[in-house]
Amino acid sequence: MADSIYVSRLVKRYGSFAAVKGISFRVKKGEIFGFLGPNGAGKTTTVHVLTTIINKTSGQAKVAGFDVSKDKEKVRSAIGIVFQDPSLDDRLTGYENLDFHAIIYGIGKDERKKRIADMLEMVELTDSAGKLVEKYSGGMRRRLEIARGLLNKPEVLFLDEPTIGLDAQTRRHILDYIKNLNKKYKLSIFITTHYIEEADYICNRIAIIDHGKIVACDTPQNLKQKLEGDAAIVKLESEESSNKLIAAMKLEKFVKSTRKDGLNLYVYVKEAESAIPKIMSIAYKAGIKVTSVEVHKPSLEDVFIYYTGRTIRDTEAESNERIRGIMRSRMR
Amino acid sequence: MNRNLAAIYVLWLRAMKRFKRSPSQIIGSVAMPFLFLIFLGAGFSAVKFPGLPPDFSYIDFLVPGILGMSMLFAATTAGISLLWDRQFGFLKEVMVAPVSRLSIMLGRTFGGITTAFLQSLLLIIFALFIGFHIVSIAGLFVSFGFMLLIGLVFISIGLILASVITDMQGFGLILNLLIFPIFFLSGAIYPVSALPSFIRYVTYFNPLTYGVDGMRGALLGVSVFPVWTDAVVLGVTALVMLALGAYSFSKAKAVA
Q1: Is the pTM for the entire model greater than 0.90?
Q2: Which of the residues B4, B18, B93, B103 would you substitute to probe the A interface, choosing the one with the greatest number of A C-beta atoms within 10 Å?
Q3: Is residue B216 over pLDDT 90?
Q4: Does the ipTM exceed 0.90?
Q5: Residues A31 and A111 in one domain
Q6: Smallest CA–CA distance from B16 into chain A, residue
Q7: Residue A332's pLDDT is what?
Q8: Residues 6 or more apart from B155 whose CB is under 8 A from it?
Q9: Which of A100, A144, A330 should we substitute to test contact with B (largest number of B Cβ atoms within 10 Å)?
Q10: Given A224, A251, A270, which residue is the final one in a domain?
Q11: Does residue A199 share a domain with residue A240?
Q12: What residues of B are in contact with residue A92 (Cβ under 8 Å)?
């Protein structure tokens, strides 16, 4: 079976700056595949190449079995796109935006009416369909764009930061839509995001992208398991008791490693919940007083730090600056 | 329906809907040529231009020029609307549709021509109230043909510039720099024969000269060149510009 997306050593350069530096990945049919990375990591550039908006510099990329450079029109008919920035005509009504899209994609009149009605209902915009889009809220626009992206019954749906700028409630709402679509239509979905929780919540597989390179690619579970595992954070009363406990822990088989952070002792284990009683009884026997215990489950945030050496928030400011600098120099 | 034809139709329909919903755009774009018509008409009414038949007034002479102006301004409107679409993202939506760039360009062009033509029709009606005579209905229809050709030429130019220049201010400056010489050196408000000879030669390279002259020939029966010469020159220019427009549009960036 052909992959929904096949990318091999894809490179995109802007002058001397390489936005995408030779990435490879596959997206299987019916999969939600996430691209996680800070702003400026090359996510949108990748989406633009895969959706035929910009040309690649080198490498190979196929979407729905068609080459993105040679079979542009075939790729375009097979995909639906929700761009990062708005792409609606706000002087038209919601209905007109959908209708015009469907006409261009060659959908006949009766079929058009039916599909638009279905889509509007799905994104709960039936009542607002006659309003001009300029009167829509951010969440409504996003939902309309998702509806539009699905009108032509695409094989692959591209979502470029679909929840950016939306409040938490609307975000969750939209993510649930996306999950449902994937289930209902067995639709392959390529989603980019810089929200870690979002990727964790929705994706079957995630590629972590940083500075134009994929640094890790796996299921969220596997990515997390590759780390040290859970941590039981044991808070102690003194430096001395901390050292004592470390010595005691070194003798135990269930302990992978330990790390001291002030009076907090991180005990890395496979599963923290079952390890805590053991740790407690060892501490009790050794006469060490424990102030409190906390369970820390590895998050994708930890995964991101592990692979890139910094948090996703740290990288944002830095890469925004870089992109702006590039834009400025290119404008002149 | 063929997808490319569908795209042309949709983009045209979109232009119509937007036009209808924006009364300020209609008033604004008709007001400027209309004011030119009134002020120039009043100011020059006493001046005798050589070559103008005695039973025609300056208004009769001026109306074809102002119609040309109105069609010329379609270049700005078409270009700006492309820049806005790029700025506000709608262009991406159109550019990723499975249709040819040529059909997108044609759809925009036809949309622009239709709006400019409707505005020019309004101008003709206004002009009737301030003393403009329609000599023959056939001539009127011939002048419609010239208006459409002028629109085709200049909308293509507007789209070419908007494909190349991506910032709004730069586009406005350059287009104004182009449009005013084109307007004043076209014989729209005074006969080309009144100009010193070296400038007169420049006007021969101006497509609007042939458009205005052709309209004058059709509406008043007086023209510098035979009407068919005007039609051929303008028609060929329109085809060349359309081809250039299609080429630069195919290279245009979808994102700012």
Answers
A1: no
A2: B93
A3: yes
A4: no
A5: yes
A6: A92
A7: 41
A8: B74, B75, B78, B108, B109, B112, B113, B116, B245
A9: A100
A10: A224
A11: no
A12: 14, 17-18
